[in-house]
Amino acid sequence: MPHDEQFASDNYAGICPEAWDFMARANTQDASAYGEDPWTQMAADRLRETFESDCEVFFVFNGTAANSLSLAAMCQSFHSVICHELAHVETDECGGPEYASNGSKLLVGDGPNGKLTPESIERLVTRRTDIHYPKPRVITLTQSTEVGTLYTVEELKAIREVADRYGLRIHMDGARFANAVAALDVSPAEITWKAGVDVLCFSGTKNGLAVGEAILFFNRQLAEDFEWRCKQAGQLASKMRFISAPWCGLLENDAWLKNAQHANACAARLEEGIRQLDGVELCFPRQANAVFVDLPEAVQTELRARGWHFYTFIGGAARFVCSWSSTPERIDELVKDIAAASAA
Amino acid sequence: MPHDEQFASDNYAGICPEAWDFMARANTQDASAYGEDPWTQMAADRLRETFESDCEVFFVFNGTAANSLSLAAMCQSFHSVICHELAHVETDECGGPEYASNGSKLLVGDGPNGKLTPESIERLVTRRTDIHYPKPRVITLTQSTEVGTLYTVEELKAIREVADRYGLRIHMDGARFANAVAALDVSPAEITWKAGVDVLCFSGTKNGLAVGEAILFFNRQLAEDFEWRCKQAGQLASKMRFISAPWCGLLENDAWLKNAQHANACAARLEEGIRQLDGVELCFPRQANAVFVDLPEAVQTELRARGWHFYTFIGGAARFVCSWSSTPERIDELVKDIAAASAA
Amino acid sequence: MPHDEQFASDNYAGICPEAWDFMARANTQDASAYGEDPWTQMAADRLRETFESDCEVFFVFNGTAANSLSLAAMCQSFHSVICHELAHVETDECGGPEYASNGSKLLVGDGPNGKLTPESIERLVTRRTDIHYPKPRVITLTQSTEVGTLYTVEELKAIREVADRYGLRIHMDGARFANAVAALDVSPAEITWKAGVDVLCFSGTKNGLAVGEAILFFNRQLAEDFEWRCKQAGQLASKMRFISAPWCGLLENDAWLKNAQHANACAARLEEGIRQLDGVELCFPRQANAVFVDLPEAVQTELRARGWHFYTFIGGAARFVCSWSSTPERIDELVKDIAAASAA
Amino acid sequence: MPHDEQFASDNYAGICPEAWDFMARANTQDASAYGEDPWTQMAADRLRETFESDCEVFFVFNGTAANSLSLAAMCQSFHSVICHELAHVETDECGGPEYASNGSKLLVGDGPNGKLTPESIERLVTRRTDIHYPKPRVITLTQSTEVGTLYTVEELKAIREVADRYGLRIHMDGARFANAVAALDVSPAEITWKAGVDVLCFSGTKNGLAVGEAILFFNRQLAEDFEWRCKQAGQLASKMRFISAPWCGLLENDAWLKNAQHANACAARLEEGIRQLDGVELCFPRQANAVFVDLPEAVQTELRARGWHFYTFIGGAARFVCSWSSTPERIDELVKDIAAASAA
């Protein structure tokens, strides 16, 4: 049975055809190592065009590295980073940011639907200013969030205002950035640098690559000597073209956006199906490619027995994530099984 | 002109067919992330068979990470690591080991042909024992070395004796480990754990992968919780199967060994060609897949003008490295051009 | 007016006479540096006698260093340390533990009166076991706590049981350890190693020294090469005797215990005085040398205007801390002023 | 026999009378912690006067910390620090700088008499510019050097020129800075910021304190948030006044300079005495308070048997260091014993 593991996470999906095609093209001959190849140049240039910005672009292997190294570039070890209590950097990176920064503390804020509010940020900044408290220097936002919701342009701008007031920088964890762009129907520029984002980690892996995230520094000063940081941290690929060429595949003809639109549409179809079911509730507004459903433990067990894969989120909700490889047929089957398991 | 960049380094080569094939196979359906997939299990098992050892196996993205993280697991920040003055960890990893270990100093030893001698190691251990000097805890050896030479089984055992005398652990940087096995015509077990190696970093990238190194802990105690270390350091691939499945390709039917034998044979052909040339000398014994040639700067410039790629090594020698993708035709052309450039 | 800053913290007090006397004795002639002097030997030996244990003893400069370095010795960067949400390591060391350990995350638990409960610890250990969550390895307890309360021997043993169940080590932040011993009327051994504590940071500074904390490893294995760690971290005093000789002063004739008893008695007197006041409530049981009082902001402002020094704690309470240098006269004056300010 | 350990190092000496006196004064009443006391303000102001500079001033516990933290503030983990092969940071701090900076490599240069030459620095900067080599960012100079010699103002300015050419910052390890000022007979300003030094670590311990080094940032930008760095690294003294008040003692009436002049004069007397001895040679020009003598191992053994303390330096020379507490009588006795032991 193909695709039998879909819905657990968008990183369970494979390599999308456009990425595969460019990987094959890059493999027709030898090429210079460490990013000194034409594919890497091309991928960076296309990202700059896509974001309408002369930003600095770097490629690293995975999301934890992208977040950790870019945050380390945005502050010192004795500074702190403000994040939502559900942020991936806080809950799922095993101390990666603290390791890369040699000790920057994460200060945990809150807000409904997985989104930091300006008030929560301000509270963390102003409650103490003594030297026993690590000085806040960065705000990190996940777009779309860990619970599949979205920051609007207005919400981002309101956070930028707080940031400006207290001299903070804004980092965006874009593990599902493509899904956010697709869902908000805005340009990449509008929800990043035009809304005050200094640095974006743009995930290729969850969008259809085998491996490889792009880090975009719209605030170019923060990128000073960043290539050395990547090298030292074991994040400089020798055969870089096998990260960058697939990125070219994603960027050509907007495959990245189509992949995201497809995943979002699949999640919308799942949401719609679930809304038809009596007594089954969503936990968060479904806005991008993830659907969080309040299912009793017994129902979740039954679904797993039927071969479905999904995560149980903090608090007990079932999380279903759609990807470029999700299919309407399987979604409909899933809805049917949720109905059956819930009825039992 | 295909393959026009060959000889600069074995990481200029692409993905070998066996690896490509398994990557394609792994892409036929979704799979669990973070190594919980059948390919990763299979790759680890095949490595254990290949090394006749129930060792612990981990996969990381690149060689700097493999070296840095495994060394960090073998000592504490206030310990030191003994390496040859030409060792990659000392000269080409931008402080990666010091970063991952949070400060372990590299103590630089020496020995002819890029190989640490037992005497040099002993000297570094015994010259001081006070607490102002970071306590030696690990010896790291590169096999084959940075100048393309080999440690014999006997040499390794002699180093093991010193290690035992002073309570040191032995790490092997196997960026070109396959080439060493092929050249020495020994089993992988014989030149690793049977000769006293505690931990091996076995490079897949230089052998024909897009990305991905295996770390083998023969001393299993040193591997305690190492998966957490990888995760924290941004070295846990979410789509791990795209590293491990290609490894299965390398390991099936000994493709890894054939790739190495081919590269070594190409280097031997190059050596032979050069030996015919009057007044052109090798700098080090050619033992694996690298050939170091004493060429005047003007000759090197001329060769580059003719489109050849190679590194100029410390001291001025030209370094030519062969890979799985090298071809006899190009080697013969290279020899001809060296002859012509040298005669000019 | 002498002592006008007392009550803000016990580190506002000066050097007690016994410590001063030994500092003077140590200054009568030259001595070997870096702890190779007779005073350091004597101080370590007396600590071993006092604790009835052949523990390993090290001296460092301050409490943040003592906590950070000992915690770093008890786990790896990818492990985590369980602490109370009010713990000094979490709230007041500016990321010191994360810095020294290169990234170990603090997991924040809770419990009434500033004390971690076994249940809270167990919850943090069992809620997740995946590699995206830093593996719990250490529990840190503050004795007496940040709110001036005490862990009883029974409470410590109950926590040791949880620790044993999950392979955790126990660290004790003894910034006010002397006050705890004095208040509980137990032997130092009984509330440390006999109750399952592996490592104790015993503060000398808050007890009457100018500078200098002792770290005691009852679990001697954890102390392996710890002297190198101190050296590397800038915590090895060259003129060590000026830390260790004053410690001898504290340990001779139990001056450390008398200092603590005095401070506790002063706090008891303050508590008693406040209990006489209508409408003024304590926030936590007064058990050692700190008194937390629920005073309106206006009252606190008035007290400060009258020249009193104290901290306003999280939540708004006024914290008064007594030390070896506190005097009954000033306490009575303080009570009178609290009465007057509250009545206004 | 008093002072029987003198000559091993200037950190074998005790606390000088002026420092002791101010320590006593600071102990007459309670004072605010963490540097918010009048002594710390006074000490910083007097340092600014002494250096004729509105520099930023911080106090830390010891020299390893002062060097490590200030170097960490001057570069990033992937940068490198150029030092002389005999520099204390390289040979005697157990990886302290690498630890505090989270991995900055020390690049080892050379030059006669323990002094880095501009040529040696330039060679290290220009030999490689690729990202596998940590980018040079700081030069560190020891004044007076580890072999007791001095950088002249002209030599410093020549190094500043190289620094400017390559965008490097200059750090001065002033473990024996006072001795250099005394010996060169220049103002502190002239051999620091006027000669291009960005940051100075000025040792109080070797000059007569129990503990405590001052870090002066003439380049104030480099001091941004440095107080947080000190706090995080466990280098913020709670009872700071017991570091700063003794500094006031050193600075009042130029006690620091007199202490240094005395130590230098003692070393000159020792030099003179030794010059009278046939067949006994100095290893380096005696310029400050240290005398390096080429003595056979047997002679050194004999001297130790007679109760003398001194270090045997790399290469075998005997190192004698004078301090504020050295006495002419003991120097003359030492000379006599060297004569006797050499004649035997």
UniProtKB/TrEMBL annotation, chains A, B, C, D:
Alphabetically ordered keywords of this record? Lyase, Pyridoxal phosphate
- Reaction equation(s) it catalyzes: L-threonine = acetaldehyde + glycine; L-allo-threonine = acetaldehyde + glycine
Instruction: Give the EC number.
Output: 4.1.2.48
Q: Quote the CDD domains the UniProt record gives.
A: TA_like (cd06502)
Q: Could you say which cofactors this protein requires?
A: pyridoxal 5'-phosphate
Identify its protein family: Belongs to the threonine aldolase family.
Described by its record, this protein's role is as follows: Catalyzes the cleavage of L-allo-threonine and L-threonine to glycine and acetaldehyde.
Task: List the protein's name.
Answer: L-threonine aldolase
Identify the taxonomic lineage of the organism of origin: Bacteria, Pseudomonadati, Pseudomonadota, Gammaproteobacteria, Pseudomonadales
